[in-house]
Amino acid sequence: MLFALGTITGKGFLTHEDRADGVNPEQHGEIIRVEDNPATRAWMTRNGLTLISRDQATEIRNASLPDRLAKWQAEAADTIAEIDSQRPELET
What we know:
50% of the residues lie in helices and 15% in strands.
């Protein structure tokens, strides 16, 4: 496996030809993971992606977990508050 920093975005970043050549990137936060083969190496070079080690990818991912968890918890709290605000009042 190869790991790189970047974001999969924009026209031409990943083409039909890339897919046909076996380029199938996975985006995990700011980490992109692909199989190690000549097609994926050429794709990474074409898109100016920075190759990083598995250990670096793990460190970056682990460092982002507290922020990602806080964001998820805030979104969950907002959703619960919205649902609660839409509940009808019970008559007593």
